[in-house]
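In this section we walk through a basic example: taking a raw amino acid sequence and producing a predicted 3D structure, encoded as discrete structure tokens. The instruction is simple. Fold the sequence below.
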Amino acid sequence: MKFFKLMIIALVSSFTVNIWCLRGEDRGFLGFWHGTLRIMEAEVELHLEFVIEGRELKGYISVPVQMMRGFPLTNIRVDYPDIYFELESGVIAHFNGRMHDGYLSGTFSQPGGGGLFHVVRGIKEEVIAQGEKERLRGETDVHIVTRYGSIHGSLVVPEVQKKVPVVLIIAGSGPTDRDGNNPMIGQGEIYRNLARKLYEQGIASLRYDKRAIGESARALQKEEDLRFLYFVQDAVQWLEELKGDERFSEVIIFGHSEGSLVGILAAQSIRIDALISAAGAGRNLSEVMAEQLSQQPEPYRTEGLAILDSLRGGLMVQEVRSELKPVFRIQIQPYL
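The resulting token sequence is shown next.
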């Protein structure tokens, strides 16, 4: 299991700028931009859009690989050729950009890391149409409603006249979406490909964006509110939906990496027919993290292990050096 990952979680918030504050040259930022966001060694597709709505300047960001579409930007400030804006998500991602001849580029940062972005002008409808995934055969959009928001998924059902088994696919750790894509790793499409292969064998499947990720991003208001139990509760609710669907003869869990633990715990709350653990951990999370930290250079090894010991004892650590924030930032400590 890999825990040293930078998670981009988007939440809805709003901030507006009165258009009367915009000089003529500042309006050059208006329109649709598309390109890439680079995080360490990985690149993901990025869309930005700046528009005037009523008397206000508003901005929106989309990261298609995470099914993040049209999320509002906050604290937009323009001073041609420079632009600054934020993405508020419990933690705040800061973007500093500059317009050049035909493109906009710059840096972004958030607790634990940062990267670069580069976008060019484009026609919104054409760019989105090119990036739209073709649905799998037998695929429909589904969702469940929780007290924290809706969790969205994709149900694939073979076109047969008999009951079929159905597999609930539970994703691994970090910002991994329903298809198995992760901005830190790339677009492997592993869960989407699994769903396709299951369909070909006459087996249904349901894969979903866990809360705070992709289309389910709105199901988490603050990162510090996240608890592992929520993932288990979501899986149980999906299983209840599948068990109540008369099209299915058996309900099976496929849990990958961290999703394996989610599946094992969910199976203790609701009766299922089978469970598949794919690369699941056989040890407590703290033991896995201790092993990973022991391989880090000093002073990160010693400081990281000390923080881990504190969390094991039920005590949070307020001061964490920037290099350790991807895994130990204060907002994620309640989850650990």
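Looking at the output, two observations stand out. The two ends are 14 Å apart (CA to CA). Residues 71 and 270 are 35 Å apart (CA to CA). In the next section we compare this with other chains.
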